[in-house]
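Following up on my earlier message about adenosine-5'-diphosphate. Here are the inputs again, as you asked, copied directly from the submission form:
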Amino acid sequence: DQTTSSLLYLNGVSVSFDGFKALNSLSFIVEPGELRAIIGPNGAGKTTMMDIITGKTRPDSGEVFFDGGKIDLTKKDEAEIAQLGIGRKFQKPTVFESHTVWDNLELALNRKRGVFATLFYSLSSGDKARIEEILETVRLTHRKDELAANLSHGQKQWLEIGMLLAQEPKLLLVDEPVAGMTDAETAETAILLKEIAKTRSVVVVEHDMGFIRDLGVKVTCLAEGSVLAEGSIDFVSNDQKVIENYLGR
Ligand code: ADP
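Thanks, got it. Here's what our run produced:
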């Protein structure tokens, strides 16, 4: 049964704003360790779907379960959902510009313990090793002593992904990571997200079709609040409804 085997399970989720159906009986399943791409036109409901998963918005109807059906996310608030292991990266990077790359990661690690905005909590050798590991993952080892302000836009995005990794999420939601990146950074981001998805599930919302193709994973195309097509990029990009509603626009 898909409720108990999946990491994230949305079934028949609907939500309206002033009578406008932003999500219309949306069903969406993410397996443990899966990397999934979400595409769709503006207003399709992609952000609203993320808001439902993270508890920012409550559905009017439908089911939202996490961790093999064990946790009903509609009964949890945003802080609880973050603690349960769902991390979200918004489009704009929000790193601490006046701190070094290392300190940003240290702050993120301390935040996981509930120690807010302090660098006075001494790190164990295990913590230091974890920070080194995250630096490798997000390609920032050579810049660890640099102020975050001096990073390129792409590197700031990677640092923020690293800060989310410090919280050890089971599911990472990533909103338009490659917007504004150079071609080289975009290509590297596809590799980086694939590596991250070896140890957790990742859902990435993107418009960059070249990047989506590089990811080479299952794609879900949303339109008007529900799933228009789902499958490989070749399958989805050849779907007549997807061409009419999104790609052909
Ligand atoms: P996407 O992220 O795919 O562009 P959204 O989820 O942001 O789509 O929006 C889906 C629809 O719901 C849009 O028409 C948007 O205007 C509407 N919407 C989203 N959030 C709200 C809100 N808080 N209040 C009113 N309307 C909203």
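One observation from looking it over: Residues 183-196 form the longest helix (14 residues). Hope that helps, and feel free to reply on this thread.
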